[in-house]
Design brief:
584 residues; mainly alpha; Serine Threonine Protein Phosphatase 5, Tetratricopeptide repeat; 3 strands; 69% helix
Length: 584
C-alpha cells in the first residue's frame, strides 16, 4: 500500500504518482518490507528487470533499506553493471539515515579518496553496532597504535564467529601484544574454530600444550571519549543524523553535557524532527547539573518565544547563570535585552554592567558598547553642569538622563536639585531617594546629606541609629560638619531620653513608688537632665527613697544650678544648705 505525502490518497504500486494531485506516493514501513521481499524473490526467479526497476524506484524515493540493497547490487555488479560511485552515492544516503551497514560500506568505498571521512564512517558504523565493521575497526586502531581498543573490537568480531578475528586474537595473546604472553587464552579462542584455516595451523601447533582458559572480556578504554570525538567530526562534516544519534548515545550514558547538546538538537531539528517539549525536559535536567549550554539554550527559548511561551525574566536568569559559568555571550544577550527594553523596562546601568562583563570575557563588540555608553553619559553630565546656572530646568533634565544611564555623579546632582529646588520643585523625599542611590553608586559626597535626612527626618522618618552610622562614616571620609552634627544629634537624643526618664519618675512618685522613681531620676541625672538632678537632690535632702545625705543633696543642687536650672526655691535652698555646710 502506498500513500500520498501531499493529499493522503492511498493506492497500490511502487514509484507511482498520485491520481489526485500528481505527487509521488509514499510507502508505509510494512509495505516497504513487503516490496523488498518481493524484489528478493524476483531475483531468485531471475526476473532481473523487475527487481532492478523496483529497487531503483524505492531507492530514489529515499527508503533506507532499498538504498542499501540497491547499493549492494551496484557494488557487486548484480542486475546492473558494477558502479562503485553509484554504490557510494546510495550507501551515503542510507548512512546519513544511520544505517550501520551502509556507513561501513561507504567508508570502504571512499577510503582512498577521503581517508578522514572514511575513518569517521567506519568508527560510526562500529559504534552503532555493525558487526561487519568490527574487524576493520580493530585493524584501524591497531595501525594507529591503540592496541587496547583494537583488542576490544577484535573481541566483538570474534564473538560474532569471524574466523579471521578469532585467529588474530589468538595470535595477539600468543605474541604478547598487550604485554603478557597467554597461550592458554590463545588456545581457548582456537578451540572455537571447528576447522582452523591453513594459515592458523602453525599457531595451533605452538599452543598445543597450553590448557585452554577463557579470557576476560576486554572493555573499551574510553567509550565516551571516542563518541565525543565522533560527535565533533559529525558536526564538522554536516552529518546531522549521525551527530544526533551519537549525542543521544552519550546522553544515555549519563553525560550531562551531551544532554544539553541533545536538547539543542531537538530544538533546532538538527538530525531529527524538532520536539520542543522533549527538549525542554532534557535541557532542564541538564541545567540542574549546571551545564552552561543548557542555560544558554533555555534562555534562547524563553527570549524568542517562538517555540515556547516568552518569559524574559526567566530568559535573563538562565543567561546570567550561563554567564557565571563562563559564557560571555550570555552576558551580552542580557545587556542587549536591558539596553533595548525588550520585554523589560529599559535599564541602561544594568546594560552597562553586563556589557562590561561580556567585554571582560572577550566580546569586543560588548566592550565597545560599554565604552560608548560611558562616553555618552559623561558628555551629557558635563553639558548639564554647564547649563546648571543659566538653564536650571534643562540641566535638571540632562542630569536625569545621565542618571538613568548610571552616572553616579549625575545621581548626586539630581539629589541636590530636589533638595534645593534647582530646575524643579523642592522634593525632600526625592532628594532622600537620590542621595541614597548616589551613595549606593559609590558617591562619598552623598553620605553626609543622607545622614542629615535621617537625623532630621527629611523626606524619611527620623532614624537616629542610621544617622549615627552615616555620620561616623562621613567623619572618616573627612566631612568636618559630621562631627558637630553627630554631637548635636546625640545631645538631642540624650535630652529626649532623659526627659522620658524624668516623666516616668514623676509618675512613680505620685504613685508612691519612691525607690523606682529614684532609679529613673538617677538615669536621667547621668544623662545630664538638670531638673532630674535637682529633684534627686531633694530626695537626698529629705531622705525620700534614699538615705538622707545633705552633702550629696548640696552637690546635686550645685550641679543643677551649673546646668542653668533656675528656681527661686532652689536658690534659697542652696543658700540655706551653704550656711549649714559646716554642720553636716
Amino acid at each position: 500500500m502506498t500513500r500520498c505525502k501531499k493529499c493522503g490518497y492511498e493506492a497500490v504500486g511502487i514509484g507511482t504518482r498520485c491520481s489526485e494531485c500528481g505527487a509521488r506516493l509514499e510507502l508505509t514501513r510494512s509495505a516497504v518490507c513487503d516490496q523488498l521481499a518481493l524484489l528478493s524473490r524476483a531475483i531468485k526467479d531471475k526476473h532481473y528487470d523487475v527487481a532492478h526497476r523496483g529497487y531503483l524506484a524505492l531507492a530514489e524515493d529515499g527508503y533506507v533499506d532499498a538504498e542499501r540493497e540497491y547499493a549492494k547490487l551496484c557494488e557487486a555488479g548484480k542486475l546492473v553493471p558494477c558502479d562503485k560511485e553509484l554504490a557510494a552515492k546510495y550507501y551515503f544516503s542510507a548512512a546519513k539515515k544511520n544505517d550501520p551497514y551502509s556507513a561501513y560500506r561507504y567508508s570502504h568505498l571512499i577510503k582512498d579518496k577521503d581517508p578522514q571521512a572514511a575513518r569517521f564512517w567506519l568508527l560510526f558504523s562500529a559504534m552503532i553496532g555493525c558487526v561487519d565493521s568490527y574487524p576493520d575497526t580493530a585493524r584501524d586502531f591497531s595501525e594507529c597504535g591503540y592496541e587496547e581498543e583494537a583488542q576490544y573490537f577484535y573481541y566483538l568480531a570474534a564473538m560474532s564467529d569471524d574466523t579471521e578475528s578469532i585467529v588474530t586474537l589468538a595470535k595477539r595473546y600468543h605474541g604478547g601484544v598487550l604485554g603478557e604472553v597467554r597461550d592458554d587464552y590463545a588456545k581457548w579462542w582456537l578451540k572455537r574454530l571447528r576447522f582452523p584455516p591453513l594459515y592458523a595451523l602453525r599457531l595451533v601447533y605452538n599452543v598445543r600444550e597450553a590448557t585452554p582458559t577463557e579470557p576476560p572480556a576486554p572493555e573499551l578504554k574510553n567509550p565516551d571519549g571516542l563518541i565525543r570525538s565522533l560527535i565533533a567530526e559529525a558536526d564538522s562534516i554536516g552529518a546531522h543524523t549521525a551527530y544526533f544519534k551519537l549525542v543521544e548515545m552519550l546522553s544515555d550514558n549519563g553525560d550531562t553535557h551531551a544532554e544539553a547538546m541533545l536538547g539543542e538538537a531537538l530544538v533546532l531539528g538538527k538530525g531529527c524532527t524538532p520536539d520542543v517539549e522533549r527538549a525542554v525536559k532534557i535541557l532542564t535536567r541538564s541545567a540542574a547539573h549546571g551545564q552552561r549550554e543548557a542555560f544558554v539554550t533555555l534562555g534562547n527559548l524563553y527570549l524568542d518565544g517562538k517555540v515556547t511561551a516568552k518569559n524574559i525574566p526567566l530568559a535573563i536568569d538562565y543567561y546570567r547563570r550561563a554567564g557565571e559559568r563562563g559564557s560571555a555571550d550570555s552576558y551580552k544577550l542580557i545587556a542587549d535585552v536591558y539596553f533595548g527594553g525588550v520585554g523589560v523596562e529599559r535599564n541602561i546601568p544594568e546594560a552597562l554592567k553586563y556589557y562590561t562583563l561580556a567585554g571582560k570575557g572577550g566580546i569586543e563588540i560588548a566592550r565597545l558598547k560599554a565604552e560608548e555608553i560611558i562616553r555618552d553619559r559623561e558628555a551629557i553630565y558635563r553639558t548639564a553642569k554647564e547649563k546648571e546656572e543659566d538653564e536650571p530646568e534643562e540641566a535638571f533634565r540632562l542630569y536625569a538622563i545621565s542618571c538613568a544611564m548610571g552616572h553616579s555623579g549625575a545621581t548626586l546632582k539630581l539629589a541636590d536639585c530636589y533638595a534645593k529646588g534647582v530646575g524643579t520643585k523642592i522634593n525632600r523625599h526625592g532628594a532622600f531617594i537620590w542621595y541614597k542611590k548616589a551613595m549606593e553608586a559609590g558617591e562619598e559626597k552623598a553620605v553626609f546629606p543622607l545622614a542629615v535626612c535621617y537625623a532630621g527626618g527629611i523626606g524619611i522618618n527620623r532614624d537616629f541609629k542610621k544617622a549615627r552610622e552615616l555620620l561616623i562614616r562621613a567623619d572618616r571620609l573627612g566631612e568636618r560638619r559630621a562631627e558637630r552634627l553627630l554631637v548635636d544629634m546625640l545631645k538631642r537624643k540624650a535630652g529626649k531620653l532623659s526627659g522620658g526618664f524624668y516623666s516616668a519618675a514623676m509618675r512613680l512618685i505620685y504613685a508612691g513608688k519612691i525607690r523606682a522613681a529614684v532609679s529613673n531620676l538617677e538615669i536621667a541625672a547621668e544623662l545630664g537632665h538638670a531638673k532630674s538632678i535637682y529633684t534627686l537632690g531633694c530626695m537626698y535632702e529629705f531622705g525620700m527613697g534614699v538615705e538622707c545625705n545633705k552633702e550629696e543633696a548640696y552637690a546635686l543642687y550645685e550641679k543643677s544650678f551649673a546646668l542653668l536650672f533656675r528656681d527661686p526655691r532652689a536658690r534659697y535652698k542652696l543658700k540655706v544648705l551653704k550656711m549649714l555646710k559646716g554642720s553636716f
